[in-house]
């Protein structure tokens, strides 16, 4: 598929807010028009073609694919508020990738910094590498995190993955840091690797689906082994994605309920072979 | 019209607008799915006294159900959306929630959304939890055998109830045997149910009665024991009449079911003992949907 390509050419000294570079904002604009757009860079404004080499096919209502190349961790807020189309990132990016993502697909082939999928609403975010803290969490000052959509992390996630998560699904194929699912309001987080301490800390509702047993707080109450048919619905939904989670089929799980410290009714499900 | 020596009356079945919904019930195995579905569709032969007309539409294998377990599809029909919603909730609560290993899912993705498990969740007394998966909300209610899993809503659509045909035969045994053969063939048709016991009704009714308290009474014109004393519709050689009533999601669904059922009887020819096929109507004044037997059977090759 033809795409609009942005190759980073400027050596950035500090973070660049890329929230404006979404299919919605760029559809119907020619390459020259896009190059003329101004973007905030610290206290100054730069023309886009001073930062990126822009090429490829302009976006139309039917073709909305953007490709970023030679990216760095200085690019923040990529795909923010995007509602349709796709963004592919060939490299690492900064914080707030897919911030408030409202539709479409973002595929990052490298690593990301913190707050990826923060306040995400809909759509699909795939991170091939690792991601930082507060994956699917709430942006500073907000009390609710991710509200929908699917996040797939092929690598590992930092601390506080799914903090205050409200809805949606986060699938981490690698490890997750401490406080995974902390203050979770609802939704599902799956982790195939190892999980750090304080998993489900102060969780109210929601599901942590784990492949390895973490060190659990005493306020997570062991409810024993069960066959839960609802897992088939989750597995069926996962099956449409390219992820290692697609190989899960077991309905047999050990269930912990908590966090009793906040009278929570969330659950940690440990997949039993 | 005569098909294979069986006379098809030049008449029509008169049917009414109804509201319908479909529920998929799954369980550990088909046996327990049927237990739940049989309970849910019990005492649901006619809206005259049961509130809804309900029946099992078909059995579903593990590839056809949302949770990958064996299940059955159930259709429920009522005269109004309010009654349908009330009956669905009551029947779900008493027949499916209570049935070991049973789970329930929406069987219609379109139409108005009505509650399936939305209120049943309160049985969980605060321990219930929901999952929003692929845009659909499911409730997980802790129960003594594990968890009761139920989709929050299902679809409700406009439908038609009261499609029918009458089987007039030379004996009671032959009339019933032919009806059974018709029902067997009609079970394969999607989107329809035959709500009466075994799919067959022997007490067809007419509107009104000589008694003030009765708004329906025996269809004396088709009662063989009255063929000499009333305005009988049946000829001397007829000794028994069976009726098959069909509720369907659309006019065409009922047409197909009627055609398949009547054709199955006609295929038997004279050995069926069936002399005539007729249909029940109220003169065309009550129901807006008329199923003309000749039109339905015109394209049939038996």
What's the structural blueprint in terms of helices and strands?
The complex is a heterodimer of chains A (273) and B (302).
Chain A: E1 4-8, E2 16-17, H1 23-26, H2 31-36, E3 38-41, E4 44-47, H3 48-51, E5 52-56, E6 65-71, E7 75-76, E8 86-91, E9 102-108, E10 122-127, E11 147-153, E12 167-172, E13 188-191, E14 207-210, E15 221-227, H4 230-238, E16 252-258, E17 266-271
Parallel strand pairs in A: 1-6, 2-7, 6-8, 8-9, 9-10, 10-11, 11-12, 12-13, 13-14, 14-17
Antiparallel strand pairs in A: 1-5, 3-4, 15-16, 16-17
Chain B: E1 2-3, E2 6-8, E3 12-26, H1 30-40, H2 47-50, E4 52-60, E5 71-78, H3 81-96, E6 103-106, E7 112-115, E8 129-133, E9 136-143, E10 146-151, E11 153-169, H4 172-186, E12 192-193, E13 205-207, E14 216-218, E15 240-248, H5 251-268, E16 274-278, E17 289-292, H6 293-298
Parallel strand pairs in B: 2-16
Antiparallel strand pairs in B: 1-2, 3-5, 3-6, 3-11, 3-17, 4-5, 7-11, 8-9, 9-10, 11-15, 11-16, 12-15, 13-14
Structural write-up:
The complex is a heterodimer of chains A (273) and B (302). Chain A is mainly beta. Chain A has a domain at 114-271. In chain A, 8% of the residues lie in helices and 33% in strands. In chain A, the strands form three sheets. A 13-stranded mixed β-sheet of chain A has the order 5-1-6-8-9-10-11-12-13-14-17-16-15. In chain A, strands 2-7 form a two-stranded parallel ribbon. In chain A, strand 16 and strand 17 (266-271) form a beta hairpin. The longest helix of chain A has 9 residues, at 230-238. The radius of gyration of chain A is 19 Å and the shape is elongated. The termini of chain A are far apart. In chain A, 49% of the residues are buried. Chain B has six helices and 17 strands. In chain B, the strands form three sheets. In chain B, strands 1, 2, 3, 4, 5, 6, 7, 11, 12, 15, 16 and 17 form a twelve-stranded mixed β-sheet that branches. Chain B has a three-stranded antiparallel β-sheet with strand order 8-9-10, with no helix packed on it. In chain B, strands 13-14 form a two-stranded antiparallel ribbon. The mean pLDDT of chain B is 95. The chains are: A mainly beta (273), B alpha+beta (302).
């Amino acid at each position: 598929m033809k795409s609009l390509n942005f190759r980073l050419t400027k050596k950035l000294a500090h973070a660049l807010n890329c929230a404006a570079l979404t299919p919605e904002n760029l559809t119907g604009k020619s390459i020259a028009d896009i190059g003329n757009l101004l973007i905030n860079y610290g206290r100054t404004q730069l023309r886009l073609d001073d930062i990126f080499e822009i090429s490829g096919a302009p976006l139309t209502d039917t073709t909305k694919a953007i490709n970023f190349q030679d990216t760095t961790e200085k690019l923040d807020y990529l795909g923010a508020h995007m509602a349709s189309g796709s963004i592919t990132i060939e490299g690492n990016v900064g914080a707030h990738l897919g911030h408030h993502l409202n539709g479409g697909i973002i595929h990052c082939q490298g690593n990301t910094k913190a707050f990826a999928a923060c306040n995400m609403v809909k759509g699909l975010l795939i991170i091939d590498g690792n991601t930082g803290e507060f994956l699917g969490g709430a942006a500073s000052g907000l009390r609710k995190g991710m509200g929908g959509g699917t996040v797939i992390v092929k690598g590992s996630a930092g601390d506080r993955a799914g903090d205050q998560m409200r809805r949606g699904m986060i699938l981490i194929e690698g490890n997750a840091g401490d406080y995974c699912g902390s203050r979770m309001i609802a939704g599902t987080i799956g982790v195939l690797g190892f999980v750090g301490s304080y998993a489900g800390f102060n969780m109210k509702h929601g599901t942590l689906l784990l492949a390895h047993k973490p060190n659990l707080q005493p306020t997570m109450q062991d409810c024993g082994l069960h066959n839960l048919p609802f897992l088939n619905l989750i597995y069926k939904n996962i099956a449409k994605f390219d992820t290692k989670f697609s190989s899960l089929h077991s309905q047999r799980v050990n269930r912990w309920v908590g966090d009793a410290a906040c009278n929570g009714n969330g659950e940690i499900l440990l997949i039993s072979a | 019209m005569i098909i294979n020596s069986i006379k098809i009356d030049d008449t029509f079945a008169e049917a009414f607008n109804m509201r319908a919904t479909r529920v998929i019930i799954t369980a550990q195995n088909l046996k327990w799915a049927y237990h739940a579905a049989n309970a849910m569709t019990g005492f649901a032969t006619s809206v005259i006294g049961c509130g809804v007309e309900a029946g099992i539409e078909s059995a579903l294998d593990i590839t056809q159900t949302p949770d990958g377990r064996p299940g059955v599809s159930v259709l429920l029909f009522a005269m109004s959306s309010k009654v349908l919603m009330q009956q669905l909730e009551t029947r779900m609560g008493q027949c499916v929630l209570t049935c070991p290993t049973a789970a329930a899912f929406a069987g219609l993705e379109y139409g108005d959304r009505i509650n399936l498990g939305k209120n049943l969740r309160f049985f969980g007394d605060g321990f219930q939890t929901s999952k929003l998966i692929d845009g659909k909300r499911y409730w997980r209610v802790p129960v003594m055998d594990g968890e009761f899993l139920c989709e929050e809503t299902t679809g409700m659509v406009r439908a038609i109830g009261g499609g029918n045909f009458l089987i007039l035969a030379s004996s009671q045994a032959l009339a019933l045997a032919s009806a059974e053969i018709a029902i067997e063939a009609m079970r394969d048709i999607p989107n329809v149910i035959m709500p009466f016991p075994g799919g067959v009704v022997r007490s067809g009714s007419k509107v009104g009665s000589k008694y003030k308290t009765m708004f329906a009474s025996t269809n004396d014109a088709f009662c063989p024991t009255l063929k000499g004393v009333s305005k009988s519709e049946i000829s001397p050689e007829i000794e028994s009449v069976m009726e098959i009533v069909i509720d369907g999601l659309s006019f065409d669904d009922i047409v197909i079911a009627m055609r398949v059922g009547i054709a199955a009887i006609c295929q038997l020819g004279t050995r069926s003992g069936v002399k005539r096929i007729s249909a029940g109507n109220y003169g065309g004044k009550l129901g807006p949907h008329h199923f003309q037997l000749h039109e339905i059977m015109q394209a049939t090759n038996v």
